[in-house]
Input
Amino acid sequence: MLETILKTKKQEIDTLSMPAYEQVEKRSLYQAIKHPTRTVGLIAEVKKASPSKGLIRADFHPVDIAKTYEAAGADAISVLTDQHYFKGHRDFLTAIKKETSIPIMRKDFIIDELQVEESLRIGADAILLIAGTVPDQKLFELYQSAHEKGMQCLVEVHAASELSSLLSVFTPELIGINNRNLKTFETSLSQTEEIASLVPQQCTFISESGIHTFEDVTRVQKAGAGGVLVGESFMRAETPSIGITNLFGESNDETTS
Ligand SMILES: O=C(O)c1ccccc1NCC(=O)[C@H](O)[C@H](O)COP(=O)(O)O
Output
């Protein structure tokens, strides 16, 4: 699947039209995760559809969803901007950035410097970089470029071997361990438990995908996760903010919108 997505991305990059600069202030994803609202950081994702699940939320209003995430104490928001596979759009990110005050991460398949520049222009505070999509040295160059432009990065891995290889080139401040196998689409939290011991002490790591219950959160927290990235279970909730309070076993009395 990843190979197919990357093929599409390369075609998109060939015809990429660069947007105008959005004049917006930068917010720190690293600080937000280091000082979370709860005992573990939460990156809440705005995602209409996905290759593994198809359409997830038909009643999809990205800015409203993002606002309810912020009201429910999310530390940061991840916005899918890929159109073809996730029904996202870069305009969603810009609109969300303007209507919220927490860090906004661009979730896409960023493999080229032009996309880093595009991310800056649309107002992203941070971008996702995925190990294995480009050689590690190239990933490091994209990481450096993002930082030079004032953005931060969540660097995602799917296997211990990917993390070891990456660490021989650079040490990202924020590492994402994705629990989803991109070949079978199965999620397993044991991914987080297996890879966690390889994360250097100075790094924070986020457990991504397949987190649906408070037990799931507790499990990855025990493995050392400083944060979780959750999409589907919030997007399937009647209102996404209730998805957040339910995930953390909190009362929904004050969060009804
Ligand atoms: O979600 C997919 O089907 C998918 C397929 C191929 C590449 C990436 C994919 N997902 C991106 C993500 O990592 C998730 O959107 C994110 O971690 C949230 O996961 P979830 O809470 O399980 O929606």
